Amino acid sequence: MINRDLYIKNIERFSNSNLIKIITGIRRCGKSSVLQLLREQFLLNGVASEHIIYINFESLKYSNLKTSQSLYEFLSKQINSDGRYYILLDEIQEVTKWEKCINSLMVDYNVDLYLTGSNSHLLSSELATYIAGRYVEIPIYTLSFKEFLDFKNIDLDKTNSQKFDLFYQYLRQGGFPIIHISEYSEDTIYKIVYDIYSSIILRDTIQRYNIREVELLERVIKFALDNIGNTFSGKNIADYFKSQNRKTDINTIYNYMYALEGAFIFYRVPRYDIKGREILKTQEKFYLSDISLLYATIGYKDSLISGVLENLVFLELKRRGYQVYVGKIYDNEIDFIAEKLNSKMYIQVAYKLESQKTVEREFSVFKNIQDNFPKYVVTMDEFWREDIGGIRHFHIADFLLSDEF
């Protein structure tokens, strides 16, 4: 099992606190592995094995623990001595009214609680009522480029000349851990990813939100996939459907996107007016939780490469704990504004700087920004490395591996 240090260190900051640790993310992103790694770490730290309780609710072994009462009774029988117990509950949303059990455990016993869930809205809505103020949410994402190299056991210090080829492999395969534990063909990879996608759509969207117009949901998904990296408008989708003689309500479209966000298929990125210093309510963007979902559902399209690269940069920023916005200054758009604590950076993403006109377009968007925070242009150019006016230029592989931010 590959150690995902970024998440383990983040979670350990809250260990042995009175906060419930909620680990969220799309199905098959590695949440269960993170719980197993935590269990191993607890054992290394001297916690007795009988004081660590791990339950995966997707296992039939625990099929009788699907209500808050049955789960509470089961756990109460396991907590049979003094000392702190470490309880790790995987896919907690499978338990009806699970939050009542968690609340009672916090009140009645000396426990350190770790939960995972595959639906962000399920967690946020129910946490708000029973354990508000007593939890921290820790998102898990599919493999980063660095983790992809770790899974492949590749040391770039020894094979740096292969970096761009390895990045292209990552670009085409995505980051679901399951596809990198063996050598699979691309066709097999996309089949595996499509099965993951189908399960998520069924369990975490259609069933969870009681969606009846499945064909319309699929049309909305396809439109969003075809427009990765473009600003999103419910009206534009409604007009598009109307041109195909398929009428639909704008609110229905946004409800479907809300459901897809809840299942971690898409992430919503709001627009931020740099000059006006306000978050705008329209023309946001949506990015996928993993780019392989795009290939598995609609295939690989060269025309979407810029959006795919943006998607990779967005996910890397989120992994590193940044709040991410699409920037607007006057009539110009900056792909990303990333903020964390007192730091900020501006990032423009493009496929290649193939002409002077393209260079000027990508670099000039920063000209009206007066602060001194870092500014980057990220592309797939392998040989062009000149910086302009303090604006750094990165190949995307170097950017994803950089320790600079």
Kindly list the characteristics that best describe this protein:
seven-stranded mixed sheet, Rossmann fold, alpha/beta, 2 domains, 405 residues
Description:
This protein is of the alpha/beta class and 405 residues long. The chain has 2 domains: 135 residues, 3-Layer(aba) Sandwich (Rossmann fold), CATH 3.40.50; 257 residues, no CATH class. 42% of the residues lie in helices and 20% in strands. It is built from 16 helices and 12 strands. Strand 9 and strand 10 form a beta hairpin. Helix 3 packs parallel to helix 4 and helix 9 packs across helix 12. The radius of gyration is 22 Å and the shape is globular. The two termini are 27 Å apart.
Share of helix, binned: 40-55%
- Count of runs of 4 or more consecutive helical residues: 16
Shape annotation? globular
The protein's oligomeric status is single chain
| Average pLDDT rating | 91
Low-confidence stretches: none
Brief synopsis:
Helix content is 42%, strand content 20%. It is built from 16 helices and twelve strands. Strands 7-6-8-9-10-11-12 form a seven-stranded mixed β-sheet. Strands 2-3-4-1-5 form a five-stranded parallel β-sheet, with helices on both faces.
Topology:
Blueprint (H helix, E strand, L loop, with lengths): L4 H8 L7 E5 L6 H14 L7 E5 L11 H11 L6 E6 L7 H11 L2 E7 L2 H11 L4 E5 L5 H7 L4 H4 L3 H11 L12 H21 L7 H13 L7 H10 L6 H13 L3 E8 L4 E11 L3 H7 L6 H15 L3 E7 L2 E9 L2 E7 L6 H9 L10 E5 L12 E4 H6 L4
Parallel strand pairs: 1-4, 1-5, 2-3, 3-4, 6-8, 10-11, 11-12
Antiparallel strand pairs: 6-7, 8-9, 9-10
